Structure formats: structure tokens, C-alpha cells
Amino acid sequence: MILIHSDDEVKCVDASSGKLTETIAHPYLSSCIPKISPINNTMLTADAYFGAALYEPNNGKKIKTFKGFLNHPDAMVKKLNYGSWFQKNIVNHVKFLSALAISSDEKYLALGKTDTSLAVLNLQTGIHLPLLKGHHEKVTALAFHPTKNILVSGDADGELILWDIEKGVIIDQLRGHTHVIFDLSFSGDGKQLISASWDGTVRHFE
User: Fold this and answer.
1) What is the spatial distance between Cα 164 and Cα 148, in angstroms, rounded to a whole number?
2) CB-hemisphere CA count at 13 Å for 190?
């Protein structure tokens, strides 16, 4: 499934046939980039009142709403240094977009926040895991390992951090980019990681 996203709608396209399967209109799509689940049966996006919602991409039906997740006390923005953002020439829509990711088993929902921390919600229990803290700039991209409880996060300064989300500890920190990370992806076997940055480079890590 391929998602084509604009500020007020997302088009769901079947990757094998190239056919449009559904168009979902939503006034809150501009607050975060929609994500498709690894098994292509759900789409995650922002919802009203700073919540998150799951949709069926084939018919646009809303499956579940997580009310107030984006403004949960443990996930609220605490501080934003406007001066540093403007000095880095990061455009407004990148500055304020929330980074979201869902694990391959659809157990965990992760949110990268403007205050540099990460919030992780166990979707099966509804319990928030302890905040993950290690970045020094806003978290702009997230990706889960396909088979392990490992999350990779990228920030506005070009730093990547690998996390063990259940233990709440940093596994590794990767450098190479010089500007904001806007996309991350693991290979199918989880042995390789690809990162894309505002600095105009795509990097390959093993």
C-alpha cells in the first residue's frame, strides 16, 4: 500500500496494481504524516483533539481512536526554541509535524515530540512506557525494527538513536547526517537501515 498525503486528505494506492483504493478526507491530516502498518491492514494518522486514529485503508473506515494521545501529560511539548529552528532554516511544516510509527506486530505506537523526547504507548494495554530521552533536538522521524522491540529515531540535528523500548535504554547512536532526518526505514530482515535527510543525502547502515 502506498499513501499519498496532503494537508486535508490521504489517497491509498495498491502498490501492485497502481489503482486508487480509497481517499480519506480529514481536517487533521496536516498535524502528522500518516503511516501504514507493516501488514497493510491499518493506517495511522492524527485525529481531533490531538488524538490518533486507526483506519482501514481499503474502505476508509475508522477502526479505533486514541483520544488525547498527542497531548497526554507525558507527551506534551514542553519547550520549543524558535531561534534555533529559524537559524537552521527548517520550514514550518517540518518544524511542527509529529513523527509517528507503529510496530510490526501492532503492539506499540511511538511518537517523537518537539521537546526532544519519545513517547511509546502499548496499544494492547493502553499503558504509556517511560519517556525515552537522548535527543537534543526535535524528533522528526521514527521506524520500528521488523522483528525486535527496537525503535530508531532521527532528529532535526541529523542524529539517529537506536532504542530498546522495553528496557528504555539507548542501544547505539549513529552520526553522518548534518541536517534534519525526514525518513527512516529498516530492511525486511532488520539487518539494514536507510535514512534520508534534509542535507540531501541518503545513508545506509548495517
Assistant:
1) 9
2) 14
